[in-house]
Automatic annotation (TrEMBL):
Active-site residues, record numbering mapped to chain: H20
PANTHER family: PEPTIDYL-TRNA HYDROLASE
Family matches, as PROSITE patterns: PEPT_TRNA_HYDROL_1
Gene designation per UniProt: pth
Xref: InterPro entries: Pept_tRNA_hydro (IPR001328), Pept_tRNA_hydro_CS (IPR018171), Pept_tRNA_hydro_sf (IPR036416)
Pfam families membership: Pept_tRNA_hydro
Site (Stabilizes the basic form of H active site to accept a proton): D91
Subunit structure and binding partners: Monomer.
Name of the protein in its database record: Peptidyl-tRNA hydrolase
Subcellular location: Cytoplasm
Gene Ontology biological process terms in this record: protein quality control for misfolded or incompletely synthesized proteins; rescue of stalled ribosome
Organism of origin: Mucilaginibacter psychrotolerans
Enzyme class: hydrolase
E.C. no: 3.1.1.29
Keyword Magnesium in record: no
Length: 186
């Protein structure tokens, strides 16, 4: 069984460790734990890991957030992975920091990366792991907020949340969306 795990983010050092790059951060840690290395390939940084005889194809799109669908679509076709085996890891300002939610499908909820994926695929029938980053910003400052780093008081929470996200990714690939939601969504 093959799975495509897509961590959303923006390339470039100025975006590293920002809220918007939590998808990249989760996949970086997963690759590190599995001893895998990312390679710059077509439209994405790519690597693969195995978990319980399943192959997890990890991509971090190099298209920037607003064109994420381009990379996802290319790799889905290239690897012949059906949409039900795709999981997108995305930051979510509607959820407080510390909240992780797996959903089988859903709206883009204003997220430009998800909007582009939806437009490219022509549907929203892909699973997503929503990583809550909070919404502690003044009205109209959403972009600055998601492109900023985590606050000093939030940083200690990140490693455990990233590890829990990795557990959820592995669970999605082994027991599926519904059972993973039951086990992890709170």
């Amino acid at each position: 069984m093959k799975y495509l795990i897509v961590g959303l983010g923006n390339i470039g050092p100025e975006y590293a460790d920002t809220r918007h790059n939590i998808g990249f951060m989760v996949l970086d840690e997963l690759a590190k734990q599995e001893g895998a290395k990312f390679y710059n390939m077509r439209l994405a940084y790519y690597t693969e890991v195995t978990h319980k005889s399943r192959t997890l194809h990890l991509i971090k799109p190099t298209t920037y957030m607003n064109l994420s669908g381009k990379a996802l679509n290319h790799w889905m076709k290239e690897l012949k992975i059906p949409v039900e085996n795709v999981l997108v890891i995305v930051d979510d300002i509607a959820l407080p920091l510390g909240t992780l939610r797996l959903k089988p499908k859903g709206s883009a909820a204003g997220h430009n990366g998800l909007k582009h994926i939806e437009a490219t695929l022509g549907n929203n029938e892909y699973a997503r792991l929503r990583f809550g980053v909070g919404d502690n910003y003044p009205k109209g400052r959403q972009v600055d907020y998601v492109l900023s780093g985590f606050d000093k008081d939030e940083l200690p929470e990140l490693p455990a949340l990233i590890d829990r996200s990795i557990e959820m990714v592995k669970s999605f690939c082994t027991i599926g969306t519904e059972l993973t939601m039951t086990k992890f969504n709170k």
